[in-house]
Design brief:
alpha/beta; binds iron/sulfur cluster; binds 1,3-dihydroxyacetonephosphate; four-stranded parallel β-sheet
């Protein structure tokens, strides 16, 4: 057996084991579109942050164990929405550079420096920041939630400066923005996308709003991962340039086998502190959800997400307000 055959067999064995353990434990596996393709294939539910939060809120009492293949704040959101269930994650080290860019103490001081402002935060935040917020948004409902407030409402938006600037631009508001960002989405290169567009002039550019303004301005469609996927499904175009994390390409190619999806290039050196030196457009945190980690997590029923009850209560209020508005 050559090395590739050997790796293929190991992968199949792991996948079979995961299917068996899922059944044995009666566990429901949720996976974000940014996880690796094999993990998405094994999941019971895949989606963007909004869909995963909605689905978690709908899980019935017959489900006692949920495995969240995503990043830590997503596991916390599931636990807050399903306090009576055991919520597991393949790797608790799967953090988020955007959530990390907004420490709760600093955010609290920022809020205090802007009295009279409504606080709207992206779900990519810690539980403490969620509890400090009046309402949350995802990239899938940010515009709708912001639009639900009067035009003259004074608003603080955190932590993503790019999503906040995009929402300001499409709503004509002047929300005060927290200066945070995602290291993956900030790495896409506008120059590289323009060069790709020259080579593929008919390919619409699909952009996640966490990208920087020059990249957003090149977007034929700007939206959450689910919105970009829907656009690709419904478009007559044959090829697309995709400026978001590479995991989404798996579902795009599966949903549209006759279309081609070209990953937008990152620029070397962009992305700031914490950006991996690989020059790829992968979220290293999402990729910690390996098949092996998922197998071990199901087998050992660990690691488990736990939340502080007081923070969870505050976060639940702002999560529920978002779900009611979206
Ligand atoms: P969505 O799932 O809202 O598209 O967000 C992308 C993201 O960066 C998740 O961390
Ligand atoms: Fe966080 Fe960016 Fe990874 Fe999304 S892609 S989980 S925002 S680091």
């Amino acid at each position: 057996m050559n090395r590739n055959d050997c790796l293929g067999t190991a992968r199949e064995t792991l996948m079979d084991e995961i299917r068996r353990l899922k059944k044995e434990k009666g566990a429901v596996v949720l996976a974000h579109y940014y996880t690796e393709g094999d993990v998405q294939e094994l999941a019971d539910i895949i989606g963007d942050s909004l869909a995963l939060a909605r689905k978690a809120a709908e899980l019935g009492p017959e489900i006692s164990t949920v495995v969240m293949c995503g990043v830590h704040f997503m596991g916390e959101t599931v636990k807050v929405l399903c306090p009576g269930k055991t919520v597991l994650m393949p790797d608790l080290a799967a953090g988020c550079s955007l959530a990390d860019s907004c420490p709760a103490d600093d955010f609290k001081a920022f809020i205090e420096a802007h009295p009279g402002h409504t606080v709207i935060s992206y779900v990519n935040t810690s539980l403490e920041v969620k509890a400090l917020s009046d309402v949350l948004v995802t990239s899938g409902n940010a515009r709708k939630v912001v639009d639900s407030f009067p035009a003259d409402e004074k608003i603080i938006f955190g932590p993503d400066r790019n999503l906040g600037a995009y929402i300001n631009s499409v709503t004509g508001r002047s929300m005060v923005l927290w200066d945070g960002a995602c290291h993956v989405h900030e790495r896409f290169s506008a120059e590289g996308i323009k060069a790709l567009k020259d080579a593929h002039p008919d390919a619409p550019v699909l952009v996640h709003p966490e990208c920087k303004r020059p990249v957003v301005l090149l977007g034929d469609k700007v939206g959450s991962t689910a919105a970009l996927l829907d656009f690709a499904r419904n478009s007559e175009a044959c090829e697309f340039i995709v400026a978001t994390e590479s995991g989404i390409l798996h579902e795009m190619r599966k949903a549209c086998p006759d279309k081609s999806f070209i990953p937008a290039p990152p620029s070397a050196g962009e992305g700031g502190e914490g950006a991996p030196a690989c020059g790829c457009n992968d979220c290293t945190y999402m990729k910690l959800n390996t098949l092996k980690a998922l197998r071990d997590c199901l087998r050992d029923s660990a690691p488990e997400i736990t939340v502080d009850p007081v923070q969870a209560e505050g976060a639940l209020r702002s999560i529920n307000r978002m779900l009611a508005l979206s």
